Amino acid sequence: MANLIDIRGVTHAYRTPLGPLPVLEDLNIAVPEGEFCAVVGPSGCGKSTLTRLVAGLMKPDRGEVWLHGERVTSPRRTVGMAFQNPVLLEWRTILENVILPLEIVAPRMPRKDRVDRAMALLEMVGLKGFEAKRPSQLSGGMRQRASLCRAIVHKPDVLIMDEPFGALDNFTREDLWQTMRDLRAAEPFTCVLITHDLRESVFLGDQVIVLSGRPASTQFILNVGLPADRRIDVLYTPEATDMLHILRDQIRIAQGREGEVH
Amino acid sequence: MEVARKIGVPLAAILMFLALWEGIVWWNGWPNYKMASPSDLPPAYARYWELFLTMGWQTLWRTVAGLGLAVLFGTLLGMVMGFSRIARDGLYPLLVGFNAIPKATLVPVLALIFIGQHDFNTVLMAFLISFFPIAVSVGIGLSTLEPEYRDILRSLGASKLTIFWKIALPKTLPEFFGALKVSVTLAFIGTNLVEIVSPHGRGLGALFKSGETNGDYPLMFAVLIALAFLGILLYYAVVALERIFAGWAERPQH
């Protein structure tokens, strides 16, 4: 099967007053259609740059990003994005926030269809009854749920998430992992998740990619190989523990600290 | 209860202020030609009521016209400064410098360029003195828009205009209205500056001037109170607009 996302030999540097700052160095990532790809790596290794490249918000200095067999050179409507900050618009209700992408992508879609689609998603993530509230009236976890709905309301092929659960407490985060798993079962999208949380990467990912320190390249790929309908308990099985161990070691290598006692 | 509090509290504050004023004048035994007291005002209004209506209207419409220009120009300038770093770097010193000039010094300049155009001069001064806060606040509002807000629409291929219309503009509205409240009072100062300084002026400023010429202190103070009243009126008009267009920014109080 062809890869839906294909990142080939991408190299990128930011121009700073102190000279070029290389962030990505010959990065290669391939994600088959429908797969969930979790990307982990040390802080500041260029993970967010990766999301902006896949979204077409910027172009790499060298290398190519392909989506659906087409080279990405500008933003495209088949992509959905979610960030650590839910960036909901305070002057819109939760429902109107979720509808926003449809106003851009499907301007002719009847109002009723938009509302139905948004309400179905809100119900799926447990926000039924909150659609008329303002973002500031919701908790952080609920805002992030609404943000996820907005990211997929226009049925994108690719969902790109940049540490979407990073600012949440542990229990809320685990709730959202399960919401994410359920959304995946209901909506077919290919997913790239940038995260700092190794447990999150193993629970959600089909493959986990470890990036090296800056400039980042692919250091290690872990095929998770757990069934799609995982439960949180799976994280306490020996297989998962082994995988977390391997990832932990890989992160230490990426940080350049593999020799240290820990 | 809520309404009574909203109207009653400011009203009580005003009455207390007037009582204090009356008391100070009475305590010092100041005569009418030294300092007017609130009790002198009703006769002054009764005597010049017709003049207050026509002059008050002239001051009001010219202030609102100047303010309208300030909103248009200030918003445009703010957009330019908000979207372009170069424009921001280039324009800020100019704007701050211009704002530091006492506007009274510009009255003779304008009067000479636009001789006899009293209405135009007055509107122009109201505009010149009041566009600055609007330009700065819109500029800051737009330039501090977090990139993620732009990215949620940009990643869908939305045009710059769409992003401005759906995200940047509404997000800047609370700052805009904050600045507009400052600009309202500034615009009145601009209008009155021209009305008082220019010979054969019109409006409440001219009425103040004629009170001064005739040593009619009650009239002068009656004009000041009328100006204050118009200022409050316009201020609450802005508050009403803010409720309609940016009411979402008001968080419920706990």
Description:
The complex is a heterodimer of chains A (262) and B (254). Chain A is an alpha/beta fold. Chain A has two domains: 172 residues, Rossmann fold (3-Layer(aba) Sandwich), CATH 3.40.50.300; 70 residues, no CATH class. Chain A is 34% helix and 26% strand. Chain A is built from seven helices and ten strands. In chain A, helix 5 links the parallel strand 7 and strand 8. The termini of chain A are far apart. The relative contact order of chain A is 0.18. The model of chain A has no long low-confidence stretch (mean pLDDT 88). The two termini of chain B are 18 Å apart. In chain B, helix 3 runs antiparallel to helix 8, helix 6 runs antiparallel to helix 8 and helix 8 packs parallel to helix 9. Chain B is globular and about 70 Å long. Chain B contains ten helices and no strands. Chain B has two domains: 30 residues; 210 residues, MetI-like fold, CATH 1.10.3720. At the A-B interface, strand 6 and helix 2 of A face helix 7 and helix 8 of B. Chain B: It holds the Pfam family BPD_transp_1. Chain B: Belongs to the binding-protein-dependent transport system permease family. Chain B: Keywords: Cell membrane, Membrane, Transmembrane, Transmembrane helix, Transport. Chain B: It is a multi-pass membrane protein.
